[in-house]
Amino acid sequence: MTDNLPAPSVRPSKSSRGDLQWTILGSGLAFIVFLAPVLAATITHLSQGTSVVSIVSDANGEDPGPLVSGVERADVAVALADLPAFVATLLILADVLVPLLWTAVLALTATASMMALRGRLFSRAFDVLLGWLVAVAAVAALAPGALRHMGTNGVLAQRGWSGAEPSAFTNIWIPIILVTTLTLVIVIHRSGRSLAEEHAGTV
């Protein structure tokens, strides 16, 4: 009886226009504060033909450069033109994907917020959007770091820096918590939408 009924919608409140404006403003501020500096740094390095790799120096081996005394980790700028094409491509992709993917995550989050404010919280389109948000967030959290790690290994091998190794992944629990939380949100949302469709028209 209820299979063909449309998904219920929530009527936006009178203040929805103001909420939408605040959502857009908040998204813009988040981009300026968090992503614009990353984008600017990426453009600067690519325009200079360099990429920054993070390494850990071995005190008993060969140092790749003048490291600060007592500091094991160092960020070293390498010229892309001096690297093999495959290694340079890995580093370029790592540089480009960080601002690109996190901008996409921010845009999807803002879109989901606006859809919810417009009363489309239980629509199938919102369900699909959440799926895309989880997928893009997972790729953004893991792919650039993996590409940079492989690229850094290539740099060390090409330069013969036997006394250094790529910096280990740090705060790996952050993307795990992020993806897990978003996945739980999808499960809860789909369960709520199914329940709403089953009880549509009964009140």
TrEMBL record:
Membrane in keyword set: yes
Sequence intervals crossing the membrane: 20-41, 129-147, 167-188
Domain of life: Bacteria
Keyword entries, A-Z: Membrane, Transmembrane, Transmembrane helix
Protein name: DUF2975 domain-containing protein
Organism per entry: Pseudoclavibacter endophyticus
